[in-house]
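User: Hi! I'm working on a homework problem where we have to compare a predicted structure to a textbook description. Could you give me the structure for the chain below?
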Amino acid sequence: MQHIDEWRAVAAATGPADRAAAEAAARRAYRAAGLAVPTRYVWVDSPLAAVHAIRALEHRGDSVREAVRTAPWAAERESAHRELGPGGWAELWNATGAQLWDTTRTLADRIRAGVVDALLGPAPEGPRDTAATRTTRGAQVSEIRGILLDAVLGQHDAPWLVAFHDRGDRLAPLADLARNTGWWWPFEHVVVFSERPVRLHRDEAGRLHSEDGPALRYADGFALAAWHGMPVPDDFFDELATLTPARIRAEENAELRRVMLEHFGYDRYLAESKAEPVHRDETGILWRIPLSDDEDVAMVEVVNSTPEPDGSFNTYWLRVPPDTTTAKQGVAWTFGLEADEYEPLRQT
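Assistant: Happy to help. Predicted structure tokens:
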């Protein structure tokens, strides 16, 4: 639908919030819920800073999220179900909110997890991992997540807001808040607003991804580093420039080791490791990279039979299943065939 791109841009917006517009929209949301408008507005740079601020706030009153966000939301959804029926509602959702749901909700979950990690650090291991420490940490995680789940997600409520875009004015204040701020926390007397991120990088699948620093960063330094959606340590990218085969083999985390291999390049790793091919035939050369505590990486090296304009021939590397035993079997697999079915007239 025509509003998808608009709300996709809202969900991915970075840079300073429009504070005046956000505060005005919050007042309208409170009035629509039959509540007195807040007497105080607190702005912070990130959801992490919001947790600190909320913990320190005095005389904030109870959360009114149910009244300002959940109740109008539920009323609008019930109205849509009643008017459109189950099939019509499913059709509307699939054409609108479902287009943004996975990437936006995954991002919100990653932010929550990142805030918990930033406040508590990694879970204790070894002798420090006792029943008492697990109980204490569990209570701390529950408290932090409780604060985060009390947030109205602002721009990250885009999947629902695009679904209800053409259905009247009941959610207009919430839509204006989403356009003008990040997450926000409504209490009886105070609203806490978080600024939007200052940096957001994703891959083509919409997953957090960056090869040169945090994929998501807020103005106060709270950040998330990721490689095609997989969380990586903050200093991970500083190390990529100096990777060696020995360092890759020494990495105990299998997921990080795969990222290192992908960045380093399988062909380069094979060359610098002085690896030996395990099989060769008319289709190419099969190489295998053994990895401790992980499945082997199998690659087939193939040469394009069609020369380039300068007369050279390009070499390609095909990732194949780890149980591949011959080069032909690997090449056939890339075409969805068994080795005895693969008989190309001409390789390209």
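For your comparison, note the following. The chain has 13 helices and twelve strands. The longest strand covers residues 297-303. Good luck with the assignment!
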